[in-house]
Amino acid sequence: MTLSILLVVSAALFCIGLLAALSRRHAIFILIGIEMMLAAANLNFIAFWRFAPQPAQPTGMMVAIFAIAIAAAEAAVGLAMVIAVYRHFRTTNVDRLDRLKG
Amino acid sequence: MNSWITSNVWLVPAVPLAASILILASGKSARRSAVAFAILGQVVALTMSIFAFVSTLHSHSFRVVENFTWFTFGEQNLRIGFVLDPLAAAMLIMITLVGLCIFIFSIGYMAEDKNFSQFFAYLSFFSGAMLGVVVANSLLLLFVFWELVGLASYLLIGFWIERPSAAAAAKKAFITTRIGDMGFFLGILWLYHQSGTLLFYDGGRGCLENAGLVALGASATFIALLIFCGAVGKSGQFPLHVWLPDAMEGPTPVSALIHAATMVAAGVFLVARVYPVFGVGAINGVTPSLTVVVWIGVITGLMGALIAVAQFDIKRILAYSTVSQLGLMMVSLGVGGVAAGIMHLLAHGFFKALLFLGAGSVIHGLHHEQDIRKMGGLRRLMPITFSTYAIGMMALSGVPFFFSGGWTKEEILHATSNWPRSHLPHYLMLIGVILTALYMTRQIIYVFFGNRHAASEHGRESSRVMTLPLIVLAVCAILFSVVLTPAWPWLESYLTGHSARFDPHLLIQPMIIVSLALVGAGVSLGIWIYRRAGETDPLQHAQPALFRFLENKMWFDEIYERTVVALSAILARLSDWMDRHVWDGLVQDIGRIGQFFGRVTTSADERVINAGVDESTSGAHGLGRLMSRWHSGQIQTYLGAVALGMLALVLLYAWLG
Amino acid sequence: MSSIAFVAITILTLAAALAAATLQKLMHAALSFAVMFVGISAFFFLLGAEFVGLVQIFVYIGAVAVLIVFTILLTRDDVGKVQSFNWSGVIVAIAVFAGLVWAIANTKSLPLTPPLIEPVRVQRIGELLMTNYVWPLQCVGVLLTAALIGALILVMEEKT
Fold it and tell me: Under a CB-based contact definition with an 8 Å cutoff, are residues C44 and C56 in contact?
């Protein structure tokens, strides 16, 4: 288990999350993708913490904890928005949500 | 007094000119003052001329030259002034004396005319201009006065302007003399170009002095001939003689003054004045230019005499006689008899003026009848006129001994007989003498002898104011012969600068016998032909075709009308067409070019500039539309853009190390 | 030993992630989404960050995944409609993956073996939270409060 492999894994995870966010039409899928990307980033942080030269501060861990907290908050708000949008537009297809079209 | 006048000869032309201005200024109705000014001006001029003449008697080869620098431009000076020498002095006296007689005659002749004062103003103007020609010190000044003389002639010939024939005659005179003047001017220019000066005498550098003549070189002949053109025009030589008979449309005093005594003499005077130019390179006194002068004079002399035989207007006969006599003078100058020619000029001035004034007296007495066929038997009605006219006629015919014309004519014949080139002029001039006597006899018989015609029933002798000048001139004609006799050739010596001897033996010469015989033959021939002349001329009866040819002035006017006048009319029409279509067309084309450029600019502005602006705005539009499509409102689009941006950053960081 | 675990966890995680990204049925995708997080937690455990792994399980699987399921249930109306797949997203994802891999590969001096560490005690984490990271802690607290209120407002129905 080298750092590079770990980084590649987290990169793959990140890209799969990006894939989910970009290619699905459902709003919830986009949120899922975002969560995946955040998780991949957390993995990155922990990996770097693990392979850091010793003695190291547990900075990576702290950041990961905070990231999880923030991700949770953001997921809550995002999902609330999906519900509100669904109530208004009766759809969760983001293609039809183009009121901000310029 | 003498020295004063020699330094102020310029006053002689100035006084009559001033008188003319005064007359014009005082208005139309001031008749008496007009006459006073004119007569006074002429008398003063005559007095000064006499004084000038007297002062020239001091020495042989007298010459006073005054060149006054008027202004300078660059390196050239314009110098005006006068020349006083025997030639000028003699001319001055003749002009002022004859002029005075004519002025006095005009008081009576023009008494009923409404433009009386204007007439005297013009007469004075003419007198001043003619005197200016005589005393001018340079060709330029002479040309200026020459043109003024032409102008005065135009004004006087067309004095009765309301008559269309008079207006046409004035125009013809001006234009014909203009043609001659053109040649004259070209000659002046060429002369100036060659010799660098137009002054006659300038302390050795003048154009008539040695240095100037040498500078002319081979062009002297052409220059002389060009200057001769001016003389041909002014003196009515062939082929520019056509204006002179038409000029009889003017009042008779005008004919007397201008076309008998003075203006036409100006041409002869010009040749005499610039004689050195004619004589450059003379071999035995013969040069090409002088030869041309001789032949032109011969043709003119013969032609004038022939036509005069067939004319019926009393003034026309005298007019053609003048043409003929001027030809004779030119011949004399051409063969080298300059003094003889000038003497004949002076004598001719007196007796021709006398003849014209006599004719005027007849016309006035018969209430402006001019056809000789309607006259007759006037010698009892108008005795003074008849006797003075007869004296004039004998002088013109050339009766020697008592009449000046005889001596001078004999001198001319003498000179022509000595011409080395050819004797033909001599013989032709002899024929001319016969013809002269013939037509003058014809005229006298028609007018004064025979039965009285119906129209001349009411004629009476003219008033004293008109007959007095006749008498004066007649006396001059006789007295003048005193100084002309070969026995005491005083005038000839005066003019040429040689000394004179009184030698009675020279009185009888072969030429005198010949001329006496010729004159006698002419007169007797005339009496024989015309003694029973009536309405029809006997010659007309005998040779109708030839007579008609001569009567119509050898069809000269008609020929000129068809050729020269028609040509100038064509040229005028051509110029008009060119002006209208070519030059106007050119201007219009340029205008069209301007318009074309305007159109080009407009379309460029519309298509290029406007279009460019439009294109760029629509491009901006399109770009805006394109870019607005990126704002799709789609979350995934934005997210995709963010991902790609992030990738780019990552790559950038990795690449930068 | 650890490498076998590593490979297994990797395969699990990635497979679950792919499933979550591509499954058509929303419920299935949500559930595999939860499985993915299990895998990630296992990663954390493997890497020695046990506390983070546990927190992950609590928060993500216990809260976030459940939230997603609830939301799916609440927005059920058009679940029957076939949703189209956007292929350009795939291309972008692959591009980004390629770029990241290239960047990783070009990074020099990455450590090959994990160094020996002593396990981090929870007490230590608590201490750090209260001393070094007290300010982020408070901020996160505020953030969570705000998120809570915001979410409530967002889904509150208007009184008509």
Answer: yes
Same domain for C62 and C131, yes or no, is no
CB contact under 8 A, B640 and C88: yes
Distant-in-sequence, close-in-space partners of B555: CB < 8 Å, separation ≥ 6: B549
Within this chain, do residues C70 and C126 fall inside the same structural domain, yes or no?
no
Interface membership of B651 toward C (CB under 8 Å): yes
Residue spans of chain B under pLDDT 50: none
pLDDT digits (tens, 9 = 90+) for C66-97: 888 888 888 776 555 656 677 888 888 899 99
At C34 the pLDDT is 93
Residues of C in contact with B636 (CB under 8 A): 86, 89
DSSP state of B79: E
Q: What is the pLDDT of residue B551?
A: 74
Span B120-171, pLDDT tens digits: 999 999 999 999 999 888 888 899 999 999 999 899 988 888 888 888 888 8
> Shortest CA distance to B16 belongs to which of B99, B134, B106?
B99
In chain B, what percentage of residues exceed pLDDT 90?
Answer: 4
Structure tokens at B522: 């002419």
Residue type, B1: M
Nearest chain B residue to A98 by CA distance is: B633
Q: Is residue C9 part of a domain?
A: yes
Q: Are residues C71 and C126 located together in one domain of the fold?
A: no
The answer to the question of residue C98 being in a domain is: no
Number of B/C CB contacts below 8 angstroms equals: 27
**Is B366 in contact with B455 (CB distance < 8 Å)?**
yes
- CA A72 from chain centre, in angstroms, equals 10
For residues C11 and C70, membership in a common domain is answered with yes
What is the average pLDDT score of chain C?
Answer: 85
What's the pLDDT score for residue B490? 65
Chain B residues within an 8 Å CB radius of C89: 636, 640
pLDDT for the residue numbered A8 = 92
Instruction: Based on the fold, state whether residues C65 and C130 are members of the same structural domain.
Output: no
User: Domains along chain A?
Assistant: 3-96 (1.10.287.3510)
Query: Under a CB-based contact definition with an 8 Å cutoff, are residues C122 and C49 in contact?
Result: no
Which pair of structure tokens corresponds to residue A100?
A: 């901000």
Hey, is the C-beta of A41 within 8 angstroms of any chain C C-beta?
no
Check if the beta carbon of residue B394 is closer than 8 Å to that of residue B404.
Answer: no
Distance CA(C21)–CA(A16), nearest Å, equals 7
- Given C51, C78, C105, the domain boundary residue is C78
pLDDT at residue B486, as a whole number: 59
CATH number, residue C28: 1.20.120.1200
Q: What is the ipTM of this complex?
A: 0.86
What tokens appear for C82 in the block?
Answer: 């076939």
C18 inside domain:
yes
Q: Is residue C103 part of a domain?
A: no
Given C78, C100, C132, the domain boundary residue is C78
CA distance B644 to chain C (A): 7
pLDDT bucket at A77, cuts 50 / 70 / 90? very high
Its domain, for residue C44, covers 1-78
* C7 and C62 share one domain: yes
Domain count, chain C: 2
Q: What is the DSSP letter of B283?
A: B
CB contact (8 A) between residue C86 and residue B636: yes
Measure Cα distances from B270 to B141, B234, B523, B535 in Å. 12, 10, 34, 42
Backbone angle region of B27, left / alpha / beta, with phi > 0 → left and psi within -120 to 50 → alpha: left
Cβ distance B633 to A102 less than 8 Å, yes or no, reads yes
Chain C environment of B654 (Cβ under 8 Å): 102-103, 106-107
Same domain, yes or no: C133 and C69? no
Least confident among B51-55, C42-46, C51-55: B51-55
B633 sits in the region (left: phi over 0; alpha: psi -120 to 50; else beta) called left
Considering chain A, what percentage of its residues have pLDDT values greater than 90?
45
